[in-house]
Every structure is written in structure tokens, then in C-alpha cells.
Amino acid sequence: MKKIVFLVGFIIAFQKFLYCEEVVFTNEEYKEKWFIVKLKNALDGDIDLFKDKNISENNEIILKLFYKLSDKSEYNMVDFRRKIDRNVDWKKMKAVKFSLYGNQDENVYLQVGFYTNSGSYFVTDIKEINWTGWKNFEIPKKNFYPVGSLCDWDDVDNFFIRVNGDVAASKGKINKEDSGEIYIGSIKIEY
What we know:
It contains two helices and twelve strands; from the N terminus they run αβββββββββββαβ. By secondary structure, it is mainly beta. Strands 1, 3, 4, 6, 9 and 12 form a six-stranded antiparallel beta sheet that branches. Strands 2-5-11-7-8-10 form a six-stranded antiparallel beta sheet. A hairpin with a 4-residue loop joins strand 7 and strand 8. The two termini are 33 Å apart.
């Protein structure tokens, strides 16, 4: 009997070891841990904590990301970034999990990624926000591609969510400006 109890305990502990998660955002967190980077032609961006029983899952506090994009197609992006733990072995990361409340703004091309200390980054494309309501995402590490010459998972220091207006602006879909809000629930990194 002792052997079975020990074996069950070992299996549970081993599973927890295999499925560790770093939480990037929870509803207890303050918005001060996040910062905004407006690239060249983006007009504005803001981040706030938000609670609304009509939008929030289980009436929890979520992140509200506001963006305003121009009709210019070069670097028409707003990055919502957060510093992350540099002591984690990011090469062992398996996936990023989060939920996003879409606003049916097909002018926005959404991307998620990790900046490195050298300025290069790993990114994946979620595509246009062509839905309204909550949608869950689980993005495997293999879906992130490098941008820049010095991309190294050992050098990761920021997680980001990018609202990108370049594609829509280059196709003439944005008339002067496009603005909106999207909402993000808990973000977890599985490794």
C-alpha cells in the first residue's frame, strides 16, 4: 500500500514538473507592470484594468487594451508589453495560453510575441480580429518565428501583444484612423 501511495504522489509531482506555468497576467495584477510602445505611425494606445459583468469572464478584472491606428502602412502598430522573468529557461517553453475578447475589427492584425534584450523578437500571427466575444488561444512555441539577426530564447525579456494596422492601411481599408478596444484574460506560459 505504501508503494502505491508513493507512486501516485511521485506521478502527481512529476506531472506538475512537466506542466509548470508562469503567469504573465492575472486579475490581481496592477497595470503598472505593462507598458505601451507606439511605433512610428500609430496614433495612440492605452492600457487599463477593467471589470464589467457583460464582458468579464466570471466578473473578473481583465486588461483593456485601447488602440488608435492611422491610415499609414509603415510601422502602424501599438505594442502592449510586459517584462517577464529572465531566470526562466525560455528554450523549454511549450506554449502561451490566453483568452481574448474580440471586437470584430478586421482592420487589426493581431500578433503575440517575445522581445529579446538585443531588440530582436519572436512573434506569431493571430490574424485579423474577425470575431466578437471571448476566444481561447494556445500557441505552441514552434509557431513563433524570429525577426532580427540576434534572436535567442536565452535573451527573452518582454512578452507583447501587438495591434498591427499595417496590412489594412496598405490595402486602403483604414480611412484616416481606426480605433477600438480588445480585452485580455489571464495569460499563462507553459514550460
